[in-house]
Amino acid sequence: MNVLCLVELDDAGVTDASLRALTFARSLASAGSPGQGGAGPVLAAVAFGPAGRVPASLLGRYGVTEAYAIEPAALDGYAPLAWARTLEGLLSVTLAGAVVAAGTDCGSEVLAHLAALTGQAMAANCIAASPAADGTLDVSRQRWAGLLIEDATLDGVPALLTVATDAVPPVPAGDLPADRRADPEVRVHEPDLDTGDLRVRAAVSAGRDGGVSLANARVVVGGGRGVGGPDGFAPLEELASLLGGVVGVSRVVTSQGWRPHTQQVGQTGTKITPELYLACGISGAIQHMAGCGSAKHIVVVNTDPSAPILSRADYAVIGDLSEVIPALVAALKERA
Amino acid sequence: MEVAVCVKRVPQVGGRIVVTPDGQDVDTRMSGFAISPHEECAVEEAVQITGRLGGTVSVLTLGPPEAADQLRDALALGAHRAVLLDDGGREWGPAGTAAAIVAEARRRAAEGPGYDLLLLGNEAADTGDYQVGVRVAHGLGWPCATGIKQLELTGDGVRARREYRGREETFEFGLPAVVTVKEGINLPRYPSLPGRLRAKRAAIEEYQPQWHPEGLRKRALRVPDQPRQQATVLGTGTDAVPALVRLLDELGVLK
Description:
Number of strands of chain B: 14
Structural class of chain A: alpha/beta
Mean pLDDT of chain B: 96
Low-confidence stretches of chain A: none
Helix content of chain A: 25-40%
Radius of gyration of chain B: 22 Å
Strand content of chain A: 25-35%
Strand order of the largest sheet of chain A: 9-8-7-10-6-1-4-5-11
Mean pLDDT of chain A: 94
Oligomer: heterodimer
CATH superfamily of the largest domain in chain A: HUPs
CATH topology of the largest domain in chain A: Rossmann fold
Radius of gyration of chain A: 22 Å
Helix content of chain B: 25-40%
Strand order of the largest sheet of chain B: 7-11-6-1-4-5-12
Number of domains of chain B: 1
CATH superfamily of chain B: HUPs
CATH architecture of chain B: 3-Layer(aba) Sandwich
Number of helices of chain B: 6
């Protein structure tokens, strides 16, 4: 089937979440019956920004066959309903049977609007999707932020899906046939919008889009109740800095007011997917694990050898973080 | 200001989630129930708004008769009016839920002053569909912002802020409107004893909304496989630091 995928741009190109969404979208496009005339499946990407900023080669490596840019002259910045209206307009251009976006705040919101506009169902945070014999899709999606999986039938045209990005790694397309190795042409698309579509529109503060944040950090040092208070975070911050990472916290910490909610890792905070999550003084409530379970390696520092987190971690140090972390920081500094 | 907050009764999950033998539901025999953290913050935000500007907070839920407990919890925190939309014993999806909320908003507007602001949590803790608020907004023809971490009422309407990818996004639009909020927008209060007593006696309005079929139809629920079983203990206390340094080196996180 033809699949249309919303791709978010950042200062470095295309966001990691969008590469994961493209991986999922490509898999869905390839799983359907072959297109007419022996053509391969159509994977259309749409990005909001100048055509010159759309990384056609990167998109091509992920199997994108056609790319559409919505330039600032036509639509400047983020307006969720306008973005959804634009996707709706592209359905007839791309003949897409499915629309995919990353399950980010942006992707979820835009696809929710598209669901309302088209009157179709939207399956949020899918981990898998494949066509069923009767034209519907068999989908598996996250409930409870991934602690539970729902297997469901998605019956709608177009099928609307967001991708649980912590569950789908970004994988470029394998060997592509010679005629598809060319970069996709980036076409400028003019959406048909009315003023009502722009009623809710973001004014954005200046800032670096693409810097290290909790959501994309390679290393996260976590602190929980065991840190004891706002003053106990200094060694964790130092360690994070030495490892080129950031500090994350559990819900206990934010509800006590020790650290801002922007640092919370968990179901109602941020989901992280680092190479390493070093969890200090965190017992491992499942809502917290929903936020960090996709870390490649989890190392725990805890005084309690029977804390639930130990059954969800790779390595553990049984000890007090207020002793272990400063000692670790000292050892790392000495080594350097 | 007439503010309505929509909440959902969800199980309080403990150490792990267990599915019923028929694979259709979460086994809730051992669990208590509550509303999601995002929704606690929505109730708090509504109570703060009417505390400053005057008006009424109505708390709505689509659920079983037992969901009256969650409505009374919200009343104990300062909500003034409670509405139970009876789910008829079925699991409702986002399109049906939104339609039921839209019907209640229209009914309220036909009886008197309608809602100026409809608040929801960004997503329910269990189903996590991320779309009810947006669907309600379309049904009512109102503007909608989601994932909001800061909300101000201005002379002309609302100013809603959130952080996205390291930048702050600000949305301004008029009322009436729908806003979905995230935990972190405020720190919810604890209920007072007088609040709890008043809530216990309060009347709850009940309606039977019309069922809507959904395009997304659940077949089964399952617990995903756990990739990890039990952590390898590297050592105790600071004695474990050398092993920890070696591990970090092996994992490739040391520069």
